[in-house]
Design a protein that fits this description.
Elements: H1 2-13, H2 16-31, H3 36-48, H4 50-59, H5 63-67, H6 74-106, H7 112-169, H8 174-182, H9 186-214
Helix pairs in contact: 1-6, 2-3, 2-6, 3-6, 3-7, 4-6, 4-7, 6-7, 6-9, 7-9
């Protein structure tokens, strides 16, 4: 797996200018007062999505056929994609969060703990995102995978719309529900979300392994 990680990191080395641009843009947004939570979420998801780029590189020009002549298993290949996504997304999340905390401290603002908790929550969201997109990309490939992802995102928005409509129909106050959830102690909620994220990633990994075992090159 170490070799696969090195391969993907070297492939992304060609995009180092893009990485620097993203970080400079993030620092600029934080300097002008853009919401720190938005910046952390944006950068974390952007860097997590590089997992999809690595899969696209692998399948380009019948790359799988060459890749699996090397001493790697399909289980290792699937596992590496999740590790790679966590490394890239997690590293970006940590760097931007540190910058946001420093700027928050310099400005004399409060709420550093809340900012750190928010960063953790967005990191969990990136894990859930990865749990969805990796098997889709492996199953359908780059072109069809984009269409399927758009369809999935559409379903999520449709589900949210239905929930809001149902709440209005039954006269439920969603803000009260959210307030009730956020009134719980932060760490138990974080632990529960972490367990959910890890369970989703593990289930996604099993699906990805099954997809890779069925592929023929």
């Amino acid at each position: 797996m170490k070799g696969l990680l090195i391969k993907d990191l070297l492939l992304l080395k060609n995009q180092q200018r893009f990485f620097l641009l993203i970080f400079f843009m993030s620092a600029g947004m934080l300097l002008v007062g853009v919401n720190s939570a938005f910046v952390i979420n944006y950068v974390t998801l952007i860097f997590t999505m590089f997992t999809l780029s690595s899969i696209s590189y692998d399948e380009y020009d019948n790359g799988y056929a060459f890749l699996f002549t090397l001493p790697i298993t399909r289980n290792q290949y699937a596992a590496e994609k999740y590790v790679f996504g966590f490394v890239t997304g997690g590293s970006a999340c940590i760097i931007v969060t540190v910058i946001a905390v420093i700027m928050n401290f310099v400005r004399g603002g409060a709420g550093t703990l809340e900012l750190l908790i928010t960063a953790l929550l967005y990191l969990f969201m990136s894990l859930l995102f990865m749990a969805v997109v990796v098997p889709v990309q492996l199953k359908f490939g780059t072109e069809k995978g984009r269409i399927v992802l758009i369809f999935i995102i559409g379903l999520i928005f449709a589900a949210g719309f239905i929930v809001v409509k149902a709440a209005k129909t039954f006269q439920l106050d969603l803000s009260t529900v959210v307030a009730a959830l956020t009134s719980f102690a932060a760490w138990p909620v974080i632990i529960v979300l972490l367990l959910i994220s890890l369970a989703a990633v593990f289930g996604s990994y099993l699906i990805s392994v099954n997809i890779m075992k069925k592929k023929q090159f």
